Amino acid sequence: MSVSTDLATPAAARRPPAAERVYAHVKQAVLDRRYEGGMLLTEGELAEAVGVSRTPVREALLRLEVEGLIKLYPKKGALVLPVSAQEITDVVETRLLVEQHAVRKSSEPVSAALIERLEELLEEQRAHAADGDLTAFALSDRCFHAEIVKSTGNEILTRLYDQLRDRQLRMGVAMMHAHPDRIAKSITEHAEITRFVRAGDAEAAADAVRRHVTWVHDLVHGGVR
């Protein structure tokens, strides 16, 4: 009996390339705030943490710099960039353009499959909130909005929205650490959005999305809700 190529390949040979492992390690640590804004990372420390040489570390850091998560300083290391007020403003503006259109479209007509999925994500969020797992909550929060965008059936719009993923997660975790009372409010607002979508009230759903998405912007600019 012949053995398939996948089964015959040693586990080590199927591991991701070294640069990919460093990239994934640093990116996840930045997103869940183990590496916070303002922290300086050195190539040596990262190489030791992941168990690789410095060459793939440099490759991974260059990629992360292009994505706007870090800033490289020759012979010093990589500075984790904090979330700026301008970045928050830009993300909120883009989210409003995409999400208000998407929620209007998802409400006309209403998809039973979408409502079921949103209800599942609401339950996930309640469970993560009860456990105090802010990173998991932020991921589920992001998935909630992404499902609405995906329901439009517009693949270009969905890909555009996916490009915001890392910025949304990073901002979400940071803001919930700073304002834990927003977790319960977010769940309430998600339930409200779901209720309006289920009722087919496109304009009420779009207005609920606007209020929900702009709270971060209001917070940064002094109009806290």
Question: Can you tell me about this structure?
Answer:
With 225 residues, this protein is mainly α. The protein has helices spanning 5-8, 18-31, 43-50, 54-66, 85-106, 112-131, 134-150, 155-162, 165-178, 182-199, 202-213, 215-220, and strands at 40-41, 70-73, 77-80. It is built from twelve helices and three strands; from the N terminus they run H-H-E-H-H-E-E-H-H-H-H-H-H-H-H. It has a three-stranded antiparallel beta sheet.
Helical percentage = 55-70%
Question: Biggest β-sheet: count, sense, barrel?
Answer: 3 strands, antiparallel
Number of helical elements: 12
**Category by helix and strand content:** mainly alpha
Side by side, the strands of the main sheet go: 1-3-2
State the low-pLDDT regions, or none: 1-7
Measured on Cα atoms, how large is the radius of gyration? 20 Å
Order of helices and strands: HHEHHEEHHHHHHHH
Return the average pLDDT rounded to an integer. 88
**What fraction of residues sit in β-strands?**
under 5%
- How far apart, in Å, are the first and last alpha carbons? 66 Å
Structure summary, number of beta strands: 3
The best one-word shape is elongated
